Task: structure prediction
Amino acid sequence: MPSSNPVLIAGGGPVGLLCALLLGRAGIPVRLFDANPCLQDDPRAATTHPGTLDVLAAVPGLVDDMARVGLVTPIFQFWDRPTNTMIAEFDHAVLKNDTRHPFVIQCEQFKTAKLLLERVVKVSNVEVLFNHTVVDVTQDSAGVTVKVDTPSGQQSHTGTWLIGADGGRSTVRKQAGIAFEGFTYEERFLVLTTPFDFAANRGYCERTYFADPEEWCNCFKVAHDGPPGLWRTVFPADSNEDPEKTLSDADVHARMQKFFPLPRQHDIVHRNLYTIHQRVAGTFRQGRVLLAGDSAHVNNSIGGMGLNGGLQDAANLAEKLIEVVVGGGSDRLLDLYDKQRRTVTNEFVQSQTIANKKRLEARDSETRKKNFEDLRESAGDPAKAREFLLKTGMIAMQQRAASITLESA
Result:
């Protein structure tokens, strides 16, 4: 039977909320702390891959709701920007026998969080506390205690386990003394959002990647508040340049005109600049402290794998924690969580996103030629297209995780 002490969760984004929902539905008391006054609605991750949709289907109605407020996009393309030529097109339909969801759903992160919170608040044994910031963590063999800054002063809370889902700058990870190994890219990523319809006016699909030896670009559509939606463009930006200059009207419009020239200026409704890291925590478990999502791993956004990896973490962790807390299983299952998720994070998310960036930014003419040949060959052969999409759709990642045991190498 579950202990009367709750599982504590730091972080109220989609990863923390999914953990809370799955644990709460299993009868486990949960207390979730989030530093923000409410759910954040900033435009962040949007792509949800087939492998993650299969996981989220365990929550009744969630995938259907995501499709309702998002965009179902089965196709994505690679283009060569200097020649304005489409190199390859991939259709997730080739995965129809591998997944119940042979498509991607473009559902902004804040919408996914909202849909999860709507379900969480209906679970009586889950408590969500906004404006509560975890600032200190201690643990022993019996439990874990956190100090939390709240509007009424600092409080202490004790639980059986603590899940750190509090982002890339995770206090939980730092308090647990867990290293965050990897590197930071020299350039930043600039995100510019516009209502300009790239499908109607340029023939691009709703997920399009542009290779360019000077300045690559990603271009994808989100539903926003409904039709006609918005398009996000992502560019590399010089990290040595003053951010105010990079984000200035003059530089923003010059960049858009260089890539997508118009007889008028593009309407830019949102702009942001991000520092990009490729890092993985040294362990996803330190005693009674468990990490998931950005607290455990961060990566560049090309291919949309970051939040997907975090949601897959949450489902894997919740399944094992339920077995430990409710089923009386050995806590070695949580070592298996660490081994499975850290292995596939390195083998798939880290390696794939690094490769995605290198493919788009390649400068050597022979390398670019080989990249394009490989993409054309993969797209043109159904068997190779399926293999390619099993990886990019994060289904192969789930299969690999399931094959890992504590005894396997």
